[in-house]
């Protein structure tokens, strides 16, 4: 092989590697991308039953009910709509009523959101920026008087 | 007074950094050697001033000076002394100060050890480091002054985030920053090589140990971070593909590629411009990591502040540094002539292949980390990319590297011979195969967990890869020993003749193999279970019985705790007595999970306390999370071996000798 051919071979190997990675990447991407949605989005039917999403909202006061074993049910609200959430497992340390949380899961056929992961941040006044932004979008200000302040301030 | 002294020292440090940049730059332009020599003294002055500033902040923490806003926000009168000291870098401002201190420390080291380098090269590199320091000091003074006072003075501090009150957090950030910032030295020398147009053997031998040192510290920092997250977050995992973890991992991948391409450049004089590009890339990714973590664009335990001004400043700084470095590269890199030709099947060819895989994996991680941010910035919706994406892209790209380690060990520089390599690898490959057929089954027999056929197969393949790597990593040293002995050298003398670089490489590759072994078993066979238990009840996991003995209250220095007792037995024999805790920190009104772990080399038993499910009844049920984590210690042990491998490689005599040899010959001839 001449020097030029070798260089071309090296370039071809590089292109092959990048191509392989891109193919892997985009397949994996399409499978694992999750959209962030609010209770209003879900109630409005923006997410089909069974599609995995991240749902952010505030836990409605007085809505947490424990069931058999580790089953827990609560209602999650933004300022306009409310949706029921079912979760089986251990809630995070900072899960409290009135607090902003993010749940990962999918809408079930009965209209309840079934979560397989619930996240709350390590500061009781803290709300994830995603959630704060979605609350602010509702006409510039929210009317969630019964909830805590929704101004984001990270720990 | 002390905080003002610290603030003043910080301002003086900025002036020193400016002097370190501008005076030598003028000297280089005018050919004035005395102006160039200012770089070293300015760098030393800058380090002293940064040290004074850092000491002043530490003193404010020790003295509980709550009139300093940063201290008041991150300390508490009841916080133990060791955490008051580590709280210095527990939040945004202080961690930047640590960054700056590290940078000036690396610069100091460069200014002290550079006497044997061509004066022009070292003045240029110090000026580049000074420019980076100027940017950071400006950032700190304008947007994040750690010494800002607070009126009225609060009576009590708001306490350090309880998550950070952990031994792992005392050393994780300094180690990580040592690594991050250490890549600035390779970056500065890369820029200096572009400006002076000289990239010779002396340059490479000078740059290599610095890069290896930075890489070793970064490896240790990431390992410690992983260990901390495992202990402290109560999620029982060692890696979450959290954007902040990725931010430290991307420079690591680029840095690993850089170490290997530097080896090619040193031995064969090839891949010069690629090496320079990687040095720029590794530091750019370190800066990007700082930007991602500190600007508040990411949501995580590390994202301290979401002040838009800070984000804009770092992003601007990032654009200037990367933009000017890459422009310079585009302009000057064609001048870096290559001295030889590259055969694909040779050690350098395999190292190039290693670089392709590492850099591709790095870009895969970059894509998954940045894509959600870009989509969000363009207002196309809010998305997140989960761990399955990263696993799907990362492991297929990383697996070939293990085979490359083995093949590389039996392939000489310049020109390899396929058949000879295959012949020598047959032994380790077959041995690894034999163990890989037995070990996964044995592990399941010892601790029965349910695993799908797919995960059993993956574990077997990963076991083979890991053992193949472990078996062949030693070949390099083995071959050196054998050829010495054939020439009649005694074993002890032969051992001593193996250079530290070879030992370091071997140790690091062994670490890589152990890491893979740990990853295979903890991912394939690790199990977890959430259970609801009343006191006296028990649950089974992987052949172990976890008996919940109930919870009682206890009192810590700045927290109260619910302490549980969980006795773990196996076939009626007591294995471990675990004491997980749920801690309540009143000063921040926050709750922390302190897990109970029984660690062995072959497995961890891990219990995290959930919550009281019946708050009215003190003897009611609790939720608990139980984990069985086989071989998870190997994951960190692998990282520790890589760290020590790096340190040993640093001590290689040829770096010192070559520096001396290079002194009279600025443009040293290429050594093979």
Give the strand tally of chain B: 11
Query: Strand share of the residues of chain A?
Result: 25-35%
Number of strands of chain A: 7
Mean pLDDT of chain B: 88
Distance between the termini of chain A: 61 Å
Which regions of chain B are unreliable across 5 or more consecutive residues at pLDDT < 50? 300-305, 658-672
Strands ordered across the widest β-sheet of chain A = 2-4-5-7-6
Q: How much helix, percentage-wise, in residues of chain B? A: 55-70%
- How confident is the prediction overall: mean pLDDT of chain A? 76
Sheet-strand content of chain B, in percent, reads 5-15%
| H and E order of chain A | HEHEEEEEEH
Give the N-to-C terminal Cα separation of chain B. 58 Å
Radius of gyration based on Cα positions of chain B: 27 Å
Would you tell me the structural class of the helices and strands of chain A? alpha+beta
What is the count of structural domains of chain B? 4
Please tag this protein with its features.
heterodimer, A: 155 residues, alpha+beta, OB fold (Dihydrolipoamide Acetyltransferase, E2P), 3 helices, 7 strands, B: 672 residues, Four Helix Bundle (Hemerythrin (Met), subunit A), 4 domains, 4-stranded antiparallel beta sheet, 20 helices, 11 strands, 64% helix, 11% strand
Describe this structure in words.
The complex is a heterodimer of chains A (about 160) and B (about 675). With about 160 residues, chain A is α+β, with helices and mostly antiparallel strands. Helix content of chain A is about 30%, strand content about 30%. Chain A folds into two domains: about 1-30; about 35-135, Beta Barrel (OB fold (Dihydrolipoamide Acetyltransferase, E2P)), CATH 2.40.50.140. Chain A contains three helices and seven strands, in the order αβαββββββα. In chain A, strand 6 and strand 7 form a beta hairpin. The relative contact order of chain A is 0.15. Chain B is of the alpha+beta class and about 675 residues long. Chain B folds into four domains: about 1-160, Up-down Bundle (Four Helix Bundle (Hemerythrin (Met), subunit A)), CATH 1.20.120; about 165-385, no CATH class; about 400-525, no CATH class; about 525-635, Tick-borne Encephalitis virus Glycoprotein, domain 1. In chain B, the strands form two sheets. In chain B, strands 3, 4, 5, 6, 7 and 8 form a six-stranded antiparallel β-sheet that branches. A four-stranded antiparallel β-sheet of chain B has the order 2-11-10-9. Classes of the chains: A alpha+beta (about 160), B alpha+beta (about 675). The interface between A and B is large, with 44 and 55 residues. Strand 1 of chain A pairs antiparallel with strand 1 (about 385) of chain B.
